[in-house]
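2024-03-11 09:14:02 INFO worker-7 job=invfold-0412 stage=load source=structure_tokens
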């Protein structure tokens, strides 16, 4: 039998290795910008075309490279950062493996121009798919000019799996932000398709954060500072009211290197315990400085994961630092008696008349009455757009009985069994739904009880409604008497610029300016009393948040809008609103699941209830 084990060709081995480092255009941006920082650059420019699919160019004024170094930097495991294994525990630079440039050159067409400070001539090198095409002396500026063209040109399968330009560019902006936030002393520029997105000058750390995310973040930031023998913690956290439903504004930096850590994130969430609404995430940008011997950063090719020698101590210090900052700025309760000395209590005297407390009640109040006067619900603006009628329920349910409910295999663990689905939900028109825990609606059906998740149900209704509006291009707009000017971040501005036509169909009337500001002249007519700024901010946040649904652009917009305007858990619904929501749900094309394939309802059969009393 012939031998079957053989050595891979170098070109194939390089492409396989590149897959660990270069996952998308943003990976190239990360590696090139970090190399520029390590080279001592004080000014770095990033120029991107077509979200990095056509070209990525990084220009810096760093130390530059000699002719020999310029060629050696493309060899695998060629590095100037370490010489022996012990050096791995003294690393303060961002790169050290010597894999980045070799990996990039294996899957792209690369042009490098570099010149050392004080040198007469520089070097130019052209590489395509790890093959050297040209190397010559050339007159160029001091520093390094790195141009990467046609990423994955020789690996079409990898290029096919890249996402749309807006999503890929958002990943590029994420990597850009992670570098600029740790180096406020440097100047940075980001240009996409000829348009300047960021121009950041030397500033303080707080000002850099504000310049990246927008001026409105300045009032949201709470400083954090704690210095111990183990670690120094600095940075900022956001006030609880600035929390969001999605993650994305949480940053950990260890020795000026961005990392991800669910363990440390748990410490932050614990410090905010009781201060955030359920499901919300706080803003934080925390910088940890620690002895490099106390961490191991050589556990992941992208170097975004590290290990701490004393992880529990870091956790405790971080938790205490955030908790102390919240208490120091009067955001959370504190036991500092010196700080609370100003509390004054009125002490009654012998001549003080003591009045007996009086409780006033309405003896005619009937919680089950249908004609009682009610305060306006947060959903009143939405539900009042339709006639509050309960007629035609049987016809609507008869239509939905014929809908064939199928469940994708990959979501079996998240969805109730098919025999529990309310395939024939019949109830008397006089049956009254009840709200449970301000989260579920319960109503009696033919053979038991029907439980409906009010948030998922409303999202299903709105998703189909906004999908129809995007398809027809018609959306109801409620004009604002006094147009509101809102400042948004560059990332939000980019997102809105790409969906101007679609957002009009959703009911927004906007004018974008070049200064990252938007003038809101109208909002969707059925969103109630929510402010334009809050609604727009939440919508962009949801749309920018990459979900696992893999929906097309139209469905992603409809889903983001549905999440932003739907009923929230904890909201009290009136009886007519509950009836209207149930009626609209069963008029949907697919009432049994929300757009993310989660069940909107379950039935508790009478036999199941009987078993509980045996």
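2024-03-11 09:14:09 INFO worker-7 stage=emit residues=614
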């Amino acid at each position: 039998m012939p031998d079957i084990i053989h050595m891979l060709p170098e070109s194939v081995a390089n492409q396989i290795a590149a897959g660990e480092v270069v996952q998308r255009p943003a990976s190239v941006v990360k590696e090139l910008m970090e190399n520029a920082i390590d080279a001592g650059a004080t000014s770095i420019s990033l120029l991107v075309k077509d979200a990095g699919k056509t070209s990525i160019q990084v220009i810096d004024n760093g130390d530059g490279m000699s002719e020999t170094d310029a060629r050696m930097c493309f060899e695998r495991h060629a590095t100037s950062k370490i010489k022996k294994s012990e050096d791995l525990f003294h690393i303060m630079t961002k790169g050290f493996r010597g894999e980045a440039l070799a990996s990039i050159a294996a899957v792209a067409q690369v042009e490098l121009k570099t010149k050392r400070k004080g040198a007469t001539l520089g070097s130019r090198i052209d590489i395509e798919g790890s093959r050297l095409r040209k190397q010559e002396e050339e007159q160029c500026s001091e520093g390094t000019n790195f141009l990467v063209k046609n990423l994955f040109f020789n690996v079409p399968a990898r290029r096919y799996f890249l996402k749309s330009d807006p999503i890929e560019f958002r990943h590029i902006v994420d990597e850009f932000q992670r570098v600029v936030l740790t180096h406020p002393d440097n100047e940075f520029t980001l240009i996409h398709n000829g348009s300047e997105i960021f121009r950041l000058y030397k500033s303080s750390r707080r000002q850099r954060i504000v310049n990246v995310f927008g001026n409105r973040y300045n009032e949201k930031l709470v400083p954090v500072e704690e210095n111990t023998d183990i670690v120094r913690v600095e940075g900022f956290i956001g006030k609880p009211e600035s929390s969001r439903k999605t993650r994305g504004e949480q940053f950990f930096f260890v020795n000026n290197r961005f990392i991800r850590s669910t363990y440390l994130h748990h410490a932050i969430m614990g410090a905010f315990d009781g201060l955030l609404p359920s499901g919300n995430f706080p803003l934080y940008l925390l910088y940890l400085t620690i002895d490099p011997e106390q961490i191991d950063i050589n556990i992941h090719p992208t170097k975004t994961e590290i290990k701490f020698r004393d992880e529990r101590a870091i956790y405790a210090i971080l938790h205490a630092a955030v908790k102390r900052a919240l208490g120091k700025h009067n955001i959370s309760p504190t036991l500092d008696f010196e700080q609370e000395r100003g509390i004054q209590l009125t002490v009654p005297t012998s001549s003080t008349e003591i009045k007996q407390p009086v409780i006033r009640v309405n003896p005619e109040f009937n919680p089950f009455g249908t004609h009682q006067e009610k305060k306006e619900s947060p959903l009143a603006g939405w539900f009042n757009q339709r006639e509050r009628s309960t007629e035609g329920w049987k016809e609507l349910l008869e239509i939905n009985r014929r809908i064939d409910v199928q469940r994708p295999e990959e979501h079996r663990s998240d969805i109730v069994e098919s025999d529990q689905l309310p395939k024939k939900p019949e109830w008397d028109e006089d049956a009254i739904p009840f709200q449970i825990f301000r989260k579920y609606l319960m109503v009696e059906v033919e053979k038991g009880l029907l439980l409906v998740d009010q948030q998922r149900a409303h999202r299903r209704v709105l998703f189909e409604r906004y999908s129809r509006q995007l398809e027809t291009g018609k959306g109801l707009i409620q004009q604002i008497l006094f147009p509101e000017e809102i400042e948004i971040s560059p990332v939000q501005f980019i997102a809105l610029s790409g969906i101007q036509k679609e957002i009009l169909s959703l009911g927004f009337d906007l004018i974008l300016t070049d200064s990252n500001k938007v003038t809101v002249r109208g909002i969707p007519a059925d969103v109630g009393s929510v402010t334009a700024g809050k609604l727009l901010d939440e919508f962009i946040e949801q749309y920018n948040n990459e979900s696992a649904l893999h929906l097309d652009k139209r469905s992603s917009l409809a889903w983001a809008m549905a999440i932003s305007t739907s009923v929230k858990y904890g909201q009290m619904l009136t009886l007519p609103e509950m009836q209207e929501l149930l009626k609209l749900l069963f008029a949907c094309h697919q009432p049994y699941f929300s757009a993310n394939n989660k069940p909107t309802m379950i039935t508790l059969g009478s036999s199941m209830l009987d078993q509980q009393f045996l």
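2024-03-11 09:14:09 INFO worker-7 stage=report msg="The chain has three domains: 10-202, 208-328, 374-614."
2024-03-11 09:14:10 INFO worker-7 job finished
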